[in-house]
Specification:
A motif (DGA/G) lies at residues 268-270. By secondary structure, the chain is an alpha/beta fold. The chain is 40% helix and 16% strand. The longest helix is centred in the last third of the chain and has 31 residues, at 314-344.
Length: 403
Protein backbone atom coordinates (compact mmCIF):
# COMPACT_ATOMS: atom_id res chain seq x y z
CA UNK A 1 0.00 0.00 0.00
CA UNK A 2 2.56 2.59 1.15
CA UNK A 3 5.07 1.71 -1.57
CA UNK A 4 2.51 2.29 -4.34
CA UNK A 5 1.71 5.74 -2.96
CA UNK A 6 5.38 6.50 -2.38
CA UNK A 7 6.33 5.80 -5.98
CA UNK A 8 3.61 8.17 -7.14
CA UNK A 9 5.30 10.91 -5.14
CA UNK A 10 8.63 9.80 -6.59
CA UNK A 11 7.23 10.11 -10.10
CA UNK A 12 6.11 13.64 -9.29
CA UNK A 13 9.63 14.40 -8.13
CA UNK A 14 11.03 13.15 -11.42
CA UNK A 15 8.55 15.30 -13.34
CA UNK A 16 9.71 18.54 -11.77
CA UNK A 17 13.34 17.84 -10.93
CA UNK A 18 14.41 19.36 -14.22
CA UNK A 19 13.27 22.73 -12.88
CA UNK A 20 15.80 22.59 -10.07
CA UNK A 21 18.50 25.20 -10.32
CA UNK A 22 18.63 26.48 -6.78
CA UNK A 23 20.33 25.34 -3.62
CA UNK A 24 20.05 21.70 -2.62
CA UNK A 25 21.09 19.95 0.62
CA UNK A 26 24.85 19.61 0.94
CA UNK A 27 26.83 16.48 1.72
CA UNK A 28 30.42 15.36 2.05
CA UNK A 29 32.04 13.92 -1.11
CA UNK A 30 31.01 10.40 -2.05
CA UNK A 31 33.52 7.62 -1.49
CA UNK A 32 35.65 7.21 -4.65
CA UNK A 33 34.73 4.19 -6.73
CA UNK A 34 38.08 2.48 -6.15
CA UNK A 35 37.65 2.75 -2.37
CA UNK A 36 34.01 1.66 -2.12
CA UNK A 37 34.74 -1.70 -0.50
CA UNK A 38 37.54 -0.32 1.69
CA UNK A 39 35.31 2.14 3.57
CA UNK A 40 34.15 1.11 7.06
CA UNK A 41 31.53 3.25 8.86
CA UNK A 42 32.81 4.15 12.34
CA UNK A 43 35.77 1.85 11.67
CA UNK A 44 33.82 -1.30 12.62
CA UNK A 45 35.37 -4.32 10.92
CA UNK A 46 33.11 -7.04 9.48
CA UNK A 47 30.14 -4.67 9.74
CA UNK A 48 28.93 -5.20 6.18
CA UNK A 49 29.33 -6.90 2.82
CA UNK A 50 28.48 -6.06 -0.78
CA UNK A 51 26.01 -8.71 -1.92
CA UNK A 52 27.14 -8.46 -5.55
CA UNK A 53 30.85 -8.70 -4.79
CA UNK A 54 33.41 -11.12 -3.40
CA UNK A 55 31.71 -13.41 -0.87
CA UNK A 56 34.86 -14.72 0.80
CA UNK A 57 34.31 -12.58 3.91
CA UNK A 58 30.71 -13.76 4.21
CA UNK A 59 31.82 -17.37 3.92
CA UNK A 60 34.38 -16.76 6.67
CA UNK A 61 31.64 -15.23 8.82
CA UNK A 62 29.51 -18.32 8.20
CA UNK A 63 32.29 -20.63 9.37
CA UNK A 64 32.91 -18.51 12.45
CA UNK A 65 29.20 -18.59 13.23
CA UNK A 66 29.34 -22.39 13.23
CA UNK A 67 32.39 -22.25 15.52
CA UNK A 68 30.50 -19.98 17.93
CA UNK A 69 27.49 -22.28 17.79
CA UNK A 70 29.62 -25.35 18.57
CA UNK A 71 31.35 -23.54 21.45
CA UNK A 72 27.99 -22.46 22.90
CA UNK A 73 26.59 -25.99 22.64
CA UNK A 74 29.71 -27.46 24.23
CA UNK A 75 29.47 -25.00 27.13
CA UNK A 76 25.80 -25.95 27.61
CA UNK A 77 26.59 -29.67 27.53
CA UNK A 78 24.60 -30.21 24.33
CA UNK A 79 25.52 -32.83 21.71
CA UNK A 80 27.80 -31.66 18.91
CA UNK A 81 27.14 -34.38 16.36
CA UNK A 82 24.99 -34.27 14.45
CA UNK A 83 24.28 -30.55 14.63
CA UNK A 84 20.55 -29.79 14.93
CA UNK A 85 18.45 -28.51 12.01
CA UNK A 86 18.71 -24.80 11.28
CA UNK A 87 16.00 -22.38 10.23
CA UNK A 88 16.42 -19.27 8.09
CA UNK A 89 13.92 -16.39 7.98
CA UNK A 90 13.72 -13.69 5.28
CA UNK A 91 11.30 -10.78 5.82
CA UNK A 92 10.55 -8.61 2.80
CA UNK A 93 9.71 -4.98 2.27
CA UNK A 94 6.14 -3.78 1.85
CA UNK A 95 5.58 -0.56 3.82
CA UNK A 96 2.49 -0.73 6.02
CA UNK A 97 1.86 -4.25 4.67
CA UNK A 98 4.57 -5.25 7.14
CA UNK A 99 1.67 -5.65 9.57
CA UNK A 100 1.09 -9.01 7.87
CA UNK A 101 4.53 -10.31 8.81
CA UNK A 102 4.26 -8.94 12.34
CA UNK A 103 0.93 -10.69 12.87
CA UNK A 104 2.14 -13.92 11.30
CA UNK A 105 5.13 -14.08 13.66
CA UNK A 106 2.92 -13.50 16.71
CA UNK A 107 0.40 -16.12 15.60
CA UNK A 108 3.24 -18.52 14.88
CA UNK A 109 4.43 -18.07 18.46
CA UNK A 110 0.89 -18.68 19.74
CA UNK A 111 0.68 -21.93 17.77
CA UNK A 112 3.70 -23.26 19.65
CA UNK A 113 5.53 -24.23 16.45
CA UNK A 114 7.70 -21.17 15.83
CA UNK A 115 11.38 -22.18 15.74
CA UNK A 116 14.51 -20.27 16.68
CA UNK A 117 16.18 -18.87 13.57
CA UNK A 118 19.86 -19.36 12.86
CA UNK A 119 19.68 -16.59 10.25
CA UNK A 120 17.25 -13.67 9.96
CA UNK A 121 17.35 -11.15 7.11
CA UNK A 122 15.24 -8.05 6.52
CA UNK A 123 14.71 -5.33 3.93
CA UNK A 124 12.73 -2.09 4.30
CA UNK A 125 9.76 -2.74 6.61
CA UNK A 126 11.22 -6.24 6.93
CA UNK A 127 14.36 -4.65 8.35
CA UNK A 128 12.25 -3.10 11.11
CA UNK A 129 10.65 -6.49 11.85
CA UNK A 130 13.85 -8.55 11.63
CA UNK A 131 15.44 -7.65 15.01
CA UNK A 132 12.19 -8.54 16.82
CA UNK A 133 11.93 -11.81 14.90
CA UNK A 134 15.58 -12.58 15.62
CA UNK A 135 15.18 -12.12 19.37
CA UNK A 136 12.14 -14.38 19.59
CA UNK A 137 8.60 -14.52 20.89
CA UNK A 138 9.29 -12.34 23.94
CA UNK A 139 9.41 -9.37 21.55
CA UNK A 140 6.02 -10.10 19.92
CA UNK A 141 4.16 -7.59 22.10
CA UNK A 142 6.51 -4.77 21.09
CA UNK A 143 6.18 -5.74 17.44
CA UNK A 144 2.39 -5.76 17.72
CA UNK A 145 2.42 -2.32 19.33
CA UNK A 146 4.64 -1.00 16.58
CA UNK A 147 2.48 -2.26 13.71
CA UNK A 148 -1.03 -1.75 15.10
CA UNK A 149 -0.65 1.69 16.69
CA UNK A 150 1.48 3.26 13.96
CA UNK A 151 0.09 6.33 12.20
CA UNK A 152 1.45 8.35 9.30
CA UNK A 153 2.60 11.10 11.67
CA UNK A 154 4.73 8.51 13.49
CA UNK A 155 6.60 7.80 10.26
CA UNK A 156 7.06 11.01 8.27
CA UNK A 157 6.29 14.70 7.89
CA UNK A 158 5.32 15.92 4.43
CA UNK A 159 7.51 18.66 3.01
CA UNK A 160 5.39 20.00 0.17
CA UNK A 161 5.89 20.06 -3.59
CA UNK A 162 8.92 22.37 -3.48
CA UNK A 163 10.85 19.54 -1.83
CA UNK A 164 11.00 17.89 -5.25
CA UNK A 165 13.28 20.69 -6.40
CA UNK A 166 15.07 21.87 -3.29
CA UNK A 167 15.34 18.88 -0.94
CA UNK A 168 16.36 15.22 -0.90
CA UNK A 169 12.87 13.70 -0.54
CA UNK A 170 9.20 14.55 -0.39
CA UNK A 171 9.02 13.66 3.31
CA UNK A 172 11.09 13.97 6.47
CA UNK A 173 11.38 10.70 8.41
CA UNK A 174 12.57 12.14 11.71
CA UNK A 175 9.37 10.76 13.35
CA UNK A 176 10.37 7.26 12.20
CA UNK A 177 13.83 7.84 13.64
CA UNK A 178 12.20 8.51 17.01
CA UNK A 179 10.17 5.28 16.78
CA UNK A 180 13.29 3.34 15.86
CA UNK A 181 15.19 4.85 18.80
CA UNK A 182 12.42 3.81 21.20
CA UNK A 183 12.58 0.14 20.22
CA UNK A 184 16.16 -0.23 18.95
CA UNK A 185 17.77 0.56 22.29
CA UNK A 186 20.82 -0.58 24.24
CA UNK A 187 18.93 -3.56 25.66
CA UNK A 188 18.02 -4.78 22.17
CA UNK A 189 21.58 -4.32 20.92
CA UNK A 190 22.98 -6.24 23.89
CA UNK A 191 20.49 -9.06 23.29
CA UNK A 192 21.52 -9.24 19.62
CA UNK A 193 25.18 -9.42 20.69
CA UNK A 194 24.43 -12.33 23.03
CA UNK A 195 22.70 -14.29 20.29
CA UNK A 196 25.51 -13.50 17.87
CA UNK A 197 27.86 -15.08 20.39
CA UNK A 198 25.82 -18.30 20.07
CA UNK A 199 26.38 -18.42 16.32
CA UNK A 200 23.18 -16.73 15.15
CA UNK A 201 23.21 -14.07 12.42
CA UNK A 202 21.04 -10.98 11.77
CA UNK A 203 21.44 -9.26 8.39
CA UNK A 204 19.82 -6.06 7.09
CA UNK A 205 19.86 -4.89 3.46
CA UNK A 206 20.29 -1.32 2.21
CA UNK A 207 21.23 0.19 -1.15
CA UNK A 208 24.40 2.26 -1.55
CA UNK A 209 22.98 4.75 -4.03
CA UNK A 210 26.34 6.30 -4.96
CA UNK A 211 27.77 2.90 -5.92
CA UNK A 212 24.44 1.39 -7.08
CA UNK A 213 25.24 -1.70 -5.02
CA UNK A 214 23.35 -3.85 -2.49
CA UNK A 215 24.81 -3.75 1.03
CA UNK A 216 24.28 -6.44 3.68
CA UNK A 217 24.86 -5.24 7.24
CA UNK A 218 26.06 -7.72 9.86
CA UNK A 219 24.10 -6.42 12.86
CA UNK A 220 25.47 -9.03 15.29
CA UNK A 221 29.05 -8.05 14.52
CA UNK A 222 28.15 -4.38 15.00
CA UNK A 223 26.43 -5.15 18.31
CA UNK A 224 29.44 -7.15 19.51
CA UNK A 225 32.06 -4.63 18.38
CA UNK A 226 32.19 -2.63 21.59
CA UNK A 227 32.23 0.52 19.49
CA UNK A 228 30.60 3.41 21.40
CA UNK A 229 28.69 4.40 18.24
CA UNK A 230 27.37 0.90 17.47
CA UNK A 231 23.83 1.76 18.56
CA UNK A 232 23.85 4.90 16.41
CA UNK A 233 24.94 2.85 13.41
CA UNK A 234 22.27 0.19 14.07
CA UNK A 235 19.55 2.83 14.12
CA UNK A 236 20.82 4.49 10.96
CA UNK A 237 20.84 1.15 9.13
CA UNK A 238 17.20 0.48 10.05
CA UNK A 239 16.17 3.95 8.93
CA UNK A 240 18.14 3.67 5.69
CA UNK A 241 16.64 0.30 4.79
CA UNK A 242 13.16 1.86 4.88
CA UNK A 243 14.11 5.06 3.00
CA UNK A 244 12.00 4.79 -0.17
CA UNK A 245 13.97 6.85 -2.74
CA UNK A 246 12.37 10.16 -3.58
CA UNK A 247 9.61 9.71 -1.01
CA UNK A 248 11.65 9.35 2.21
CA UNK A 249 14.96 11.09 2.83
CA UNK A 250 18.13 9.05 2.31
CA UNK A 251 20.52 8.32 5.17
CA UNK A 252 24.13 9.49 4.99
CA UNK A 253 26.86 7.36 6.56
CA UNK A 254 30.09 9.10 7.59
CA UNK A 255 33.31 7.31 6.66
CA UNK A 256 36.95 8.32 6.75
CA UNK A 257 39.67 7.06 4.41
CA UNK A 258 43.32 8.07 4.53
CA UNK A 259 42.47 11.05 6.70
CA UNK A 260 39.73 12.35 4.38
CA UNK A 261 36.04 12.50 5.26
CA UNK A 262 33.38 11.11 2.94
CA UNK A 263 29.69 10.24 3.06
CA UNK A 264 27.79 7.32 1.56
CA UNK A 265 24.16 7.80 0.58
CA UNK A 266 21.99 4.80 1.47
CA UNK A 267 18.32 4.19 0.65
CA UNK A 268 15.74 1.41 0.84
CA UNK A 269 17.27 -2.01 0.26
CA UNK A 270 14.21 -2.71 -1.87
CA UNK A 271 15.64 -0.45 -4.58
CA UNK A 272 17.68 -3.53 -5.53
CA UNK A 273 16.01 -6.48 -3.78
CA UNK A 274 12.74 -6.74 -1.84
CA UNK A 275 14.10 -9.70 0.13
CA UNK A 276 17.12 -11.99 0.35
CA UNK A 277 18.40 -15.06 2.16
CA UNK A 278 22.06 -14.97 1.16
CA UNK A 279 23.99 -14.17 -2.05
CA UNK A 280 23.45 -16.62 -4.90
CA UNK A 281 27.22 -17.16 -5.14
CA UNK A 282 27.15 -18.93 -1.75
CA UNK A 283 25.96 -22.54 -1.68
CA UNK A 284 25.10 -23.35 1.94
CA UNK A 285 24.67 -26.99 1.00
CA UNK A 286 28.39 -27.34 0.33
CA UNK A 287 29.85 -24.46 2.38
CA UNK A 288 28.80 -25.77 5.80
CA UNK A 289 28.36 -29.02 7.73
CA UNK A 290 25.70 -31.52 6.70
CA UNK A 291 22.47 -30.68 8.49
CA UNK A 292 18.79 -30.12 7.77
CA UNK A 293 18.11 -26.56 6.61
CA UNK A 294 14.73 -24.84 6.30
CA UNK A 295 14.01 -21.41 4.82
CA UNK A 296 10.91 -19.38 5.71
CA UNK A 297 10.20 -16.40 3.45
CA UNK A 298 7.61 -13.78 4.46
CA UNK A 299 6.58 -11.60 1.54
CA UNK A 300 4.73 -8.59 2.95
CA UNK A 301 2.64 -8.13 -0.18
CA UNK A 302 0.18 -9.85 -2.44
CA UNK A 303 1.56 -11.87 -5.32
CA UNK A 304 -1.49 -11.51 -7.55
CA UNK A 305 -1.84 -8.40 -9.77
CA UNK A 306 -3.42 -5.30 -8.23
CA UNK A 307 -5.93 -4.02 -10.79
CA UNK A 308 -6.54 -0.26 -10.96
CA UNK A 309 -7.68 1.90 -13.87
CA UNK A 310 -4.92 4.39 -14.70
CA UNK A 311 -5.72 8.01 -15.50
CA UNK A 312 -4.27 9.40 -18.70
CA UNK A 313 -1.91 11.77 -16.92
CA UNK A 314 1.88 11.72 -16.94
CA UNK A 315 2.28 11.51 -13.16
CA UNK A 316 -0.32 8.75 -12.79
CA UNK A 317 1.16 6.72 -15.63
CA UNK A 318 4.71 7.09 -14.32
CA UNK A 319 3.66 6.22 -10.77
CA UNK A 320 1.69 3.18 -11.90
CA UNK A 321 4.61 2.01 -14.05
CA UNK A 322 7.14 2.31 -11.21
CA UNK A 323 4.73 0.51 -8.87
CA UNK A 324 4.40 -2.28 -11.43
CA UNK A 325 8.18 -2.58 -11.72
CA UNK A 326 8.56 -2.85 -7.94
CA UNK A 327 5.82 -5.47 -7.73
CA UNK A 328 7.48 -7.48 -10.48
CA UNK A 329 10.84 -7.12 -8.75
CA UNK A 330 9.33 -8.52 -5.56
CA UNK A 331 7.96 -11.54 -7.41
CA UNK A 332 11.35 -12.12 -9.00
CA UNK A 333 13.01 -12.00 -5.57
CA UNK A 334 10.61 -14.68 -4.35
CA UNK A 335 11.54 -16.82 -7.36
CA UNK A 336 15.25 -16.20 -6.82
CA UNK A 337 15.16 -17.33 -3.19
CA UNK A 338 13.13 -20.38 -4.22
CA UNK A 339 15.59 -21.55 -6.86
CA UNK A 340 18.62 -20.86 -4.64
CA UNK A 341 17.00 -22.90 -1.86
CA UNK A 342 16.25 -25.76 -4.25
CA UNK A 343 19.83 -25.72 -5.53
CA UNK A 344 21.26 -25.83 -2.00
CA UNK A 345 18.93 -28.51 -0.65
CA UNK A 346 17.14 -26.06 1.67
CA UNK A 347 13.48 -26.81 2.47
CA UNK A 348 11.54 -23.79 1.14
CA UNK A 349 8.46 -22.25 2.79
CA UNK A 350 6.68 -19.10 1.59
CA UNK A 351 4.02 -16.86 3.15
CA UNK A 352 2.30 -13.90 1.47
CA UNK A 353 -0.90 -11.87 1.66
CA UNK A 354 -3.60 -13.94 0.01
CA UNK A 355 -6.46 -12.84 -2.21
CA UNK A 356 -8.82 -13.58 0.71
CA UNK A 357 -7.66 -10.40 2.46
CA UNK A 358 -9.80 -7.59 1.09
CA UNK A 359 -9.85 -4.83 3.72
CA UNK A 360 -9.42 -1.59 1.75
CA UNK A 361 -6.69 0.86 2.64
CA UNK A 362 -7.71 4.26 3.96
CA UNK A 363 -4.57 6.36 3.71
CA UNK A 364 -0.91 5.88 4.47
CA UNK A 365 -0.27 3.86 7.62
CA UNK A 366 -3.96 3.58 8.45
CA UNK A 367 -4.28 1.99 11.94
CA UNK A 368 -7.54 0.33 10.86
CA UNK A 369 -5.99 -1.25 7.79
CA UNK A 370 -2.82 -2.32 9.59
CA UNK A 371 -4.73 -3.80 12.54
CA UNK A 372 -6.89 -5.82 10.13
CA UNK A 373 -3.84 -7.06 8.24
CA UNK A 374 -2.01 -7.89 11.48
CA UNK A 375 -5.01 -9.93 12.62
CA UNK A 376 -5.17 -11.65 9.23
CA UNK A 377 -1.58 -12.81 9.55
CA UNK A 378 -2.02 -13.67 13.22
CA UNK A 379 -5.13 -15.82 12.76
CA UNK A 380 -3.69 -17.72 9.81
CA UNK A 381 -0.50 -18.53 11.73
CA UNK A 382 -2.18 -19.26 15.07
CA UNK A 383 -4.27 -21.96 13.41
CA UNK A 384 -1.18 -23.40 11.72
CA UNK A 385 -0.11 -21.49 8.62
CA UNK A 386 -0.14 -23.53 5.43
CA UNK A 387 3.25 -22.56 4.06
CA UNK A 388 3.60 -22.61 0.29
CA UNK A 389 6.33 -24.95 -0.88
CA UNK A 390 6.86 -22.97 -4.08
CA UNK A 391 5.85 -19.58 -5.51
CA UNK A 392 2.46 -19.31 -7.27
CA UNK A 393 2.62 -20.95 -10.67
CA UNK A 394 5.24 -23.47 -9.57
CA UNK A 395 3.33 -25.04 -6.69
CA UNK A 396 1.34 -28.26 -7.03
CA UNK A 397 -2.22 -28.15 -5.58
CA UNK A 398 -1.32 -30.29 -2.56
CA UNK A 399 2.06 -28.66 -1.87
CA UNK A 400 1.08 -26.15 0.85
CA UNK A 401 1.76 -27.67 4.25
CA UNK A 402 1.87 -26.85 7.92
CA UNK A 403 5.43 -26.97 9.31
Amino acid sequence: MLRRRAVSRMALSCAVVGLAGCSIPEREPAVPLADTERAMPFGIANARYFADGEVKEMEVEGRRAIEREVAARRAAGQPLSPLPPVNYLAVSGGGDDGAFGAGLLAGWSESGTRPEFKLVTGVSTGALIAPFAFLGSSYDASLRECYTSMKAENVFKKRGLTAAMFDDAMADTSPLAEVIARYANEAMLEAIAREYGKGRILLIGTTNLDAQRPVIWNIGAIASSGNPRALELFRKILRASAAVPGAFQPVLFDVELDGRKYQEMHVDGGAIAQLFLYPASINVGTAGPRRVRRAFVIRNARLDPNYAATERRTINIAGRAVSTMLTSSGRNDVLRTYFISKRDGVDYNLAFIGSDFNTPGSGEFSPTYMAALYDYGYQHARQGYRWHKAPPGLETPAAAVKP
